[in-house]
Amino acid sequence: MLRVLPIAGVVGTCVALTGCASTLDTVTSRTFRSSPFDTTVKMVRPEDPLVVLRANPPRSGDDRAKAMLRLQEPLTNGGSQADQDEMIDTLARAATSDPSPVLRLSAIEALARFQDQRAAGVLMLAYQNAHGRSEDATVPTARVPGARPPLAVPTGFAPDTVTTIRCRVVESLGRGGRPETIAFLASIAGSSAPGQGPEGSEDRDVRLAAVRGLGQCRHPEAVTALAQVMTAEHGKDAAVVGRAHDGLVNLTGQRIPADPARWNQVVQAGATVVPEPNVVDRAVNWVLGPP
């Protein structure tokens, strides 16, 4: 009892400092049961993410995923170019080829915060590899003379997991807002049938995420892409049109209804992208309601 009371007090403090969800996940974990004091200390003062991600032998997947979520870009936070290159390489491997979807998603989330121009390329590759398939998987067969060679079998993540990874990637690309990603996002957002765009772009959830991503890219090319999506989907998919309209209003600041003809006029006149709305702007737009 004497041992439990101080731990309970510290845990209560952690709940106040770090939030209920993450704290409850920790105190109900196997690590907490086996080493409560060390785990509690790490809750209050987490390890340096660089130390965790460099550990050899590698730490548990849970530790690495949490470290990626805490990771800040080394070069913009006092780190060296060597640190930057190492973390880009670590995150690239995790985002594009790790067998754990949790680690892939954590790496994608970390890359979304990086300003490094390599991050966008890694994220696009993560989209293409989201299926998680392994080319080396085969069906084991008995070694019988004259037997047929092993057959390749479908491998990879479940469809819902693939969709989640792809949605997270395109949303992360939008948050990065780099000009070179606009064409990639537009190819997904404008594809409503198989074969029209990158693999998975026929998935409606992925398309909606790509449209949302375009709405965060503050470049005139994104305005053009969103207007094209609105024109193509007008009268077909109200959700896609609505997301495209939200993005157009956000990028241009023009409160024009979701009318493709009027937005195409804006594009032809040379759309100007306004700075990202602040809290006051968002509050005013909320009060005014949709155009």
From TrEMBL:
SUPFAM superfamilies: ARM repeat
Protein origin, superkingdom: Bacteria
Swiss-Prot/TrEMBL keywords: Lyase
Sequence segments annotated as region (Disordered): 136-155
GO molecular function list: lyase activity
Alphabetized PROSITE patterns for the sequence: PROKAR_LIPOPROTEIN
Protein name: PBS lyase HEAT-like repeat protein
